Request: fold
Amino acid sequence: MEKKIKRQAVFYGLAAILLATVLGALIYDYRIFLPEFLTGASPIPAAHANFLSTFSSSDEIKNFLASNSATQGWFPLYGSTDATLFGSVPGLQSFAKGASVIANEEGSAFDYSSTNVQVAGVDELDTVKIDDEGYMYVLSGNVVSILRAYPSAFAGVVSTIDFEDAYPIGVFVKGDRLAVFSCEYTLSSKVYYNYYYADCKTSLRIYDIHTRENPFLVRDLTFTGSYFDSRMIGDYIYFVVNKQAYVLNDTVVLPEITSNGKTSHIEPSDIHYINGNDTYYQYTTFIAVNIQNTEEAPVYLTIMLGSTSNMYVSLNNMYLTFREWSSYNTAIYRIRIQANNMTCEAEGSVYGYEINQFSMDEYGDYFRIVTTDWSNGTQQNNLYVLNMSLSVVGKLENLATGENLHSTRFMDNRAYLVTFKSIDPLFVINLTDPAQPTVLGQLKIPGYSDYLHPYDETHLIGVGKETVEAGPYFAWYQGIKLALFDVSNVTNPIQMYEYVIGDRGSDSPILTDHEAFLFDKAKNLLVIPVLVAKIDESQYSGGVPANAYGQTVWQGAYVFNLSLGNGFVLKGKITHLEAGVDVSDTNYWVERSLYIENVLYTVSEKKVMLNSLEDLGFIKEVPLT
Reply:
């Protein structure tokens, strides 16, 4: 009997080992990973900020909202990214906002372009990325496709990640790690002024892509709330999530975190705030995550703020702005970042509202911001210089009174501003003395630029609209205008070249999304995705009026040679539209362009097309979902 028991023990022991081996092999080969079985450290709160208060209980939060917020209940969805994902859902509108010169990537055996970012070394989320191994990661619908992109002869999809009911919004890639942000929504059947009520969740999923054909999940992190913005510096992803602060059935709804299948809520004692009044409040949570090391705990910092507006990130600081509607001020928070350490170190405010992330900049020990505001019914523009405590140390107010602010670009001790009413003034501002910013010169020309990009230290590229004056205080915008400015003589900037695409009604994603812009000075390469509208002049016997719209006739990428000697020279055009496909079908619109060596890759929802950079000759196309 004893021998039999021993034999059975040995048998069952060997069977257990064999079963564990087989299961392990299946999990590895087929990447069978469920969130609740993932390993990795759980998120932990950041250290408390000295100048911010924290709540002691949910009741204290409820009392704070009752005393300081005009809205304590559920309110409509206003996320900057959320609504862009619901083009087919009526009532959900888009509130979308997104030192980079595209250059060779260090450590790669080949030359390729990267995402057009604002600050060198600070990567930004995008719908397309290329890695050092020649693979491309493309978001299309609810699917992230991994393509073998280089060499071009072998280009094709090697694997896909389907997000089913979630809505992927962008990716980061670093070494053998792929990070995908996505959002999930629970929409209410009730509609308020054409806006759906919604509960939102933001997820960050990190995949091991050592084998590109079989990516597998290694971290699954979800926060209740709307995705706001993100950056990646080195191995660390920093992102921000906003959740509505409201009371439901006399209960405070706290933000929740789900890490690898385990859910917990953020404790009131870890929620920071400053006493004040606002129309409504949100739980704004900053999160730092190591994309490589899942055993390092993510860190989160939650502050109760109003309506978040824009985010600027340097190598050492995150700056988040939100608008104080009652005072026409913009409040600014500075979060010190170093690896997974985040500390809220300063809070300040300036008059007026900034228009986007390019309205802000950090240089040395100073933060600079450009705002626009209305005083006594007149629009004016302002530039403020703040120290690291976010106290104003210098300012230039009442600039371009009565004109709209369209774009800003900071370059070291210079700031370039474009305002517009009937003509386009380009201002050059000296910031050498932070206490006394001064206007050095300005250029007034027809049209305006919504995006400014450095060509080199003394030249700027502008992308915007051509205009036709209709009086001293008004002008009709026309087609897409490209301009090259010479600012080497700061007191007398000049427009060297211009190129206009299409007629009134033409558009380009670059006007609101800088990541759609591809420029490489070394290659003399500029690629602009455009929707072209054309006017049939035969329909206007007395001449075409300036306010006439053209009919949309084409969409795709204009490819230019750009140089100081010759300006904008059109090399050719690339479209993804096919026979039988209407130009209004946005699935075929080119939204991104990249290059690897001498091949240009253009990307739409439907396909990736490869063309030679030498003559734009067709090479092949790779279908997507």
Summary: The mean pLDDT is 88. The longest strand covers residues 177-192. The radius of gyration is 26 Å. The first helix runs from residue 2 to 30.
